[in-house]
Structure formats: structure tokens, C-alpha cells
Amino acid sequence: xxxxxxxxxxxxxxxxxxxxxxxxxxxxxxxxxxxxxxxxxxxxxxxxxxxxxxxxxxxxxxxxxxxxxxxxxxxxxxxxxxxxxxxxxxxxxxxxxxxxxxxxxxxxxxxxxxxxxxxxxxxxxxxxxxxxxxxxxxxxxxxxxxxxxxxxxxxxxxxxxxxxxxxxxxxxxxxxxxxxxxxxxxxxxxxxxxxxxxxxxxxxxxxxxxxxxxxxxxxxxxxxxxxxxxxxxxxxxxxxxxxxxxxxxxxxxxxxxxxxxxxxxxxxxxxxxxxxxxxxxxxxxxxxxxxxxxxxxxxxxxxxxxxxxxxxxxxxxxx
Length: 319
Known about the structure:
Layout (H helix, E strand, L loop, with lengths): L7 E11 L8 E17 L4 E8 L12 H13 L4 E8 L9 H14 L12 H12 L7 H6 L2 E4 L4 E4 L6 E7 L5 H6 L7 H20 L2 H7 L6 H4 L6 H10 L4 E4 L6 E5 L2 H17 L4 E7 L6 E2 L3 H6 L1
Parallel strand pairs: 3-4
Antiparallel strand pairs: 1-2, 1-11, 2-4, 2-5, 5-6, 7-9, 7-10, 8-9
């Protein structure tokens, strides 16, 4: 058999807004501005190994089975019965515990790069199950609200078995503000323990339906009515300094809605136009500053880009 022409590849997966407030564990969208890059190289040894971790996070497990990217490629190898292995280098551009999908981005970027090295690359949707295996290493559960949009781009409804891309008007923008604080996913999930009233589920279901209908119709009024998290946000808000002030800053700048991104502490708002999102992002940063927290701001279309092959950071440095 002749050698596969491509022996290494690098891919980037962008940050994400998980849950989008009303879609706990099932709705998310990617947002350009921060991302993880993973370089993958085919090796003769039938295993997965991690050669290095660089960037804004370098204290991560190098044991592949304990690393989201490593576990995703282990699942891929096993499912396809590959006789060769992969060596990967992670270049982290998304802080962990930020609510921006950092763990998901690593495993999605690794899968997209490794997929390019297969004799018969798989469709994006076919990578979903392997991404869930990787994500579970960090979060303790198989939920696709981060990996789904990273794989397909834009706003995605991610169920256990299916990914559905939800159309969003191109002018709609997201303002995402990440305070320099860490809120671990497992701690954020622990805050959700307890009893819930049936009425809360009914109200949240109605709001999710309004948001989805509003996106499909391009009807901002429907989204504005529905983008209110009555189920999860009240239980996680106390974990985020000045959350109420930050959220109100977004709403004061005509946000369609604002809530916690993923497990937090990042906060997002949706806007009909970029100018509103830019102004809101500044105000949201100022609100975090009142709590003594510096923050990073990202403003980009809700209909963000999917993970894609890219140049390696080493090539960028050499250019």
C-alpha cells in the first residue's frame, strides 16, 4: 500500500457559547476571536500520544486517556480499527474554566486534523460521537452544546444523536466577555443540584421554542421575548461576581437577551447589529471592572465559523 500523502495536519476550533441561556446542554454557537489549534501527526505505533501543550494553558494531562483531545482520537482509532496512531501537540488559545468551550475546542480541533489524515475522511457529523467522548473527560457528561457548533459552525441544536444547524441572520452579533476568573465546569454543574418546579421546565421550554422559531424566521422580537433563562441562570448567577450588573449592561445596550456562557464565568449578549454589541461589550467589561476583575471581550457574528484546517503556530512564527 502506498503511503498516505498527508502525514500531518493542523486545525483550529473556535470558542463557543454553550447553552445560549435557554438550551441547557443542547444549544450552542461558535464565536470567532479565540480558539485552540491542534497539530496531529500520523505515527506507525498504534497508540495516541501527546507531544506537548502550549499557549494560555499548559497544565493539562499528557496522558491521552485523561485529555479531551487524546480521548477523542482514541475513540476514533478504536471505532475505525486503525492500525496506525496519532501524535498531537495542543496550542491552547481558550482559557479553561472560562465558559468558552476550551475543553471542547481541543478535542474538535484534534478530530478535524486527524480526519484529514484518514484514507477516507469522515463527514463532520460522523465526528460528533468521538467529540462527545473527548468532552466527557473534562465535563463528566456527553453533552454537545459546545462540540456541535464547533464541528458545523454557527448556532447548532445538539441532541444525543443528531446535530441540527439553526439559521441565524448574518447581521446578528454576540458580545462575549470573559472575566479573568476561573469557574470549573464541574463546580458550575454542582450548583444545579436540587429540586425544580414543573412550571420552571414549562417556562424554559417555551423560551427555547421562541428563540429557535425567532432564529428560523429571522424575527428578533421572538428571540427578545424568549432569550431568558429561568432554569439554570438563577442557580449559577451567585458564582459570578457582579453578574447582575454585567447582564444589565448588555440589556441597557438593546441586547436581545443576555446570560451565562456555558458554565461561566463568561457572560454573553445577542444583538441585532455589531455596533450595539461593541458598545455593550465595553459596558460589560466596565461592570466586571467594578468587581475588580479585568476581562477579555469578543464581538463576532452569532453565525460563527466551523473548525477548519489551518497553518501550525510554528509556521506562523517562521513567516
